[in-house]
Amino acid sequence: MRSLSAGRRDFQGNNMTGKIPVRLIKEPLxxxxxxxxxxxxxxxxAELLPGVLFERLGRRYRKLVKLPAWYIPPxxxxxxxxxxxxxxxxxxNANQAxxxxxxxxxxxxxxxxxxxxxFSADIRALAExxxxxxxxxxxxxxxxxxxxxxxxxxxxxxxxxxxRFKLAQR
Length: 170
Hints:
Layout: E1 8-9, E2 15-16, E3 29-40, H1 45-56, E4 63-66, H2 74-77, H3 81-84, E5 89-92, E6 96-100, E7 104-110, H4 116-133, E8 136-148
Antiparallel strand pairs: 1-2, 3-7, 3-8, 4-5, 5-6, 6-7
Helix pairs in contact: 1-4
């Protein structure tokens, strides 16, 4: 991996010179998730949208899995925001999944990460399909999450941090 900026040192004391890397040698990414939460124009988005997605995305997501939230009665799920925003169905392919609920849609990319160029193209394709259905009345929130696991070859203690502590003027 090339380093981030000149004149700095990494946690092992090596000089950090060069440019910001485009891709790391050892990929730390476990999962990338794009999610939108919305106000729906229909009550049963989780029942309607998977068929549309299956048809319009070229049948890329062939496996359909009903998630535990599928079995919760709607009148109970509506009373708890964490349940109301839970996905009910997952459409899967090799390393991606589309999660659909009555108020949420997400695209998840697991290892091996396909890279931002492909993942962002898949996000745009999914967003376009969802937009054309008319099922989303108003966008309430969107997020992009990256879950990373950085492994180091040796135990790292506090001595690798560049910090200074001062207690009672000492």
